[in-house]
Design goal:
With about 400 residues, this protein is an alpha/beta fold. About 40% of the residues lie in helices and about 20% in strands. An eight-stranded mixed beta sheet has the order 5-4-3-2-1-6-8-7, sandwiched between helices. The chain has a six-stranded mixed beta sheet with strand order 11-10-9-12-14-13, sandwiched between helices. The structure holds adenosine monophosphate (AMP).
Length: about 400
């Protein structure tokens, strides 16, 4: 099956055409700055990147460009749009409405609309992507794959906050968790790699990128995760603070004369690695500064590592038996130094790294622990788009 995977943002439309038989991406690309000075870039069959300015005033026009590009004979991706068997959409928030991927019908659109209140930045553009596809390809089946769905198996003890219960009942304030598609994908891949049955597989998945989250997975199901009601909670991220004492919010509002929106902005966009280091949200840049002797860069890395280790420790206790600790996403897949620091000194818990293998790991799933360890440390490249494509196929074949 050929599935067009769509990830629609407020002014962008990211896509990938995936063959679910070969698991290969046929092409991928993005339309950015929809609405003003739009730019379209895509990858050719021989993996060259081509960029051009286009006139796309809305998501429907952006999608039309993408589809014209897909069927352009010069690119040799597909001969006609009939070859696109289905469309799979990344939808950020499914709240308690969705615990699995679903075929998009009228009542699903209504439910996604309802979730906009909880995810006002993400769900409305996701919905725009869905509506644009319905307009341009009305006969192609569409499936929604939710970032939150994997974590819907969490027990109440993991998802309730200790605030008055009525706020959960009235407003749905609880932990939802995000990056679910990635956590689920790397869990599946790791179980397969270690030849374990998914429903008997326990792991801690560390999705460490610009946004980061960690999940505790018991018998293949998420039982806890670090992100919460929003993606702000949890480990230190590129520009997000992760968990802090909530009293800091009120103190800052008073002292700096800020309103709620301004503090929200600081915690989401000016904190994390960027705020602490004063250098960058990109760990590679911070690492370069650390090598030059910049102390704030060094302490930023230490704070990041400590925040990750706290979750690993907590989830080891929560799971009891851990078959694998998994590192994935930009930092988790590429930064051997962070991986090394995150699991150093855990020998007494049966967690050991083969340092050379860890340093050499690149591009493919790798067991970073020495032979015979009960708890494996794995680097698993994530592939959320492939997971969305496979889910889309799975839902439609049901
Ligand atoms: P992601 O959000 O998964 O695309 O991850 C992006 C982040 O991964 C960047 O902000 C970098 O901090 C980090 N990253 C990517 N490549 C490397 C690398 N080779 N070494 C260290 N960090 C990296």
């Amino acid at each position: 099956m050929k599935v067009l995977v769509i990830n629609a943002g407020s002014s962008s439309l990211k896509y990938q055409l995936i063959d679910t038989i070969t698991h290969q991406s046929i092409t991928k690309g993005i339309v950015e700055r929809i609405g003003a000075d739009a730019e379209f870039s895509f990858s050719t069959r021989d993996d060259r990147k081509i960029k051009s300015a286009i006139d796309a005033k809305n998501h429907t026009q952006a999608l039309t460009y993408v589809l014209d590009n897909l069927k352009d004979p010069a690119n040799a991706f597909i001969k006609s749009l009939d070859e696109i068997d289905a469309i799979g959409h990344r939808v950020v928030h499914g709240a308690e409405e969705f615990s699995a991927s679903v075929r998009i019908e009228e009542k699903v659109i209504k439910a996604i609309e309802k979730c906009c209140e909880i995810a006002p930045l993400h769900n409305p553009p996701n919905l725009q992507g869905i509506l644009a596809c319905r307009e341009v390809l009305p006969d192609t089946p569409q499936v929604a794959v939710f970032d939150t769905a994997f974590h819907q198996t969490m027990p109440k003890s993991s998802y309730l906050y200790a605030i008055p219960y009525e706020f959960y009942e009235k407003y749905g304030i609880r932990r939802y968790g995000f990056h679910g598609t990635s956590h689920r994908y790397v869990t599946m891949k790791a179980a397969e790699f270690l030849d374990k049955k998914l429903d008997e597989f326990n792991c801690i998945t560390c999705h460490l990128g610009n946004g980061s989250s960690i999940a505790a997975v018991k018998n293949g199901r998420s039982v806890d995760t670090s992100m919460g009601y929003t993606p702000l909670e949890g480990v230190v991220m590129g520009t997000r603070s992760g968990s802090i004492d909530p009293a800091i919010v009120f103190y800052l509002m008073k002292k700096e004369n800020l309103d709620a929106k301004q503090v929200d902005d600081i915690l989401n966009k000016k904190s994390g690695l960027l705020g602490l280091s004063g250098i960058s949200n990109d760990l590679r840049t911070i690492w370069q500064e650390e090598l030059k002797g910049n102390e704030r860069a060094a302490v930023t890395r230490d704070v990041l590592v400590k925040s990750i280790r706290k979750y690993i420790g907590a989830y080891m206790v929560e799971l009891g038996t851990v078959d694998a600790i998994i590192f994935t996403a930009g930092i988790g897949e590429n930064d051997w130094n962070i991986r090394e620091r995150c699991v150093s000194g855990l020998e007494n818990f049966g967690i050991v790294l083969d340092n050379q293998v860890n340093r050499d790991a690149k591009g493919a799933i790798t067991d970073l622990s020495p032979f015979g360890m009960k708890t494996h440390v794995l680097m698993v490249p994530t592939n959320e788009e492939l997971m969305i494509a496979l889910d889309t196929e799975g839902v439609l074949k049901k």
